[in-house]
Amino acid sequence: MKGRLDSFIDLLQGTRDFDELQKHLKGLRDMFDIEHVTYHSVNSTGHQYASTTYSADWSVQYFGEDYARIDPVVQGCFRRFHPVDWRQLDWSGKSARDFMGEARAAGVGTHGFSVPIRGPSGQFALFTISDARRDSEWELYTTEHTRELILAAHYVNQKALQLERGSDETKVQNLSPREIDVCTLLAMGQSRAQAAEALGISEHTLRVYIESARFKLGASNTIHAVAKALSMGLLVI
Q1: I want to staple 168 with a disulfide (CB 3.0 to 4.6 A). Which of 92, 137, 162, 218 is the partner?
Q2: Residue 126 belongs to what H/E stretch?
Q3: What is the CATH number of the domain that holds 211?
Q4: Coil, strand or helix at 84
C-alpha cells in the first residue's frame, strides 16, 4: 500500500485542475479497493466543492436538497477531530434514518469512515470512504488502513486548496526531538495517556508538545499535525 500511496501522491503533485483531481480520486478508490471515495469541502464563505465516486444522480439529489443540514456524518464530524466510523454517529432520529435509507438505495454503502479536516480561514472538509462489506470485514479494513486514509485525506485537501487559492504552503520550522517522539507515538495509534506514560511525562506536558508541533507545522489539529509530519518524512514508523 505504501508504494501505491506514494505513486498517488506523485500524481496529485502534478494535478492542474479539479477535473484531474476527480480522476485521481477514482484511482484512489481502486487503490484502496473500496466502493466509494468522497472529498467534500466548505470554505469560510460557504462555497462548497465536492469530488466523489457516488452516482451523479445521488450527488445532484444530495446538494439539491441540501442534505448536509441533516446528514449525521457532516453534523457529527464537524464536532470531531479524529476519524469517525459512521457506526459511532447518532442515527436514531427519523430524518437521519430516512436519509440513510435514501443513501443506501443510491448505492452509498452500509458502512462509512470519514476524516474531518480543518484548513485555513475556517475551511472544513471531509474525506470519506464507504462500502458494503460485512461488519467484521469493515472493522478489520479500517483498522489496517487508518494511517493511509488520513495521509490521503490531507494530501487531497492540500491539493484542493492549492487549486482554489494558488498555494497551500506555510512556513515550516523543524520539530524538536521530543515533539517528534510525541507525534511518532500518536501516529502509531497510542492515546495521549499511553504516549505520556511511554515518555514519562504528564498529559499536560504532552499537550504542550502537541500544540508546539501543530503551530510549527501550520496544522489545524493534532491529526493534521501527525499527517503532515509523516508526509514530510519527519517521523519513522
Answers
A1: 162
A2: strand 124-131
A3: 1.10.10.10
A4: strand
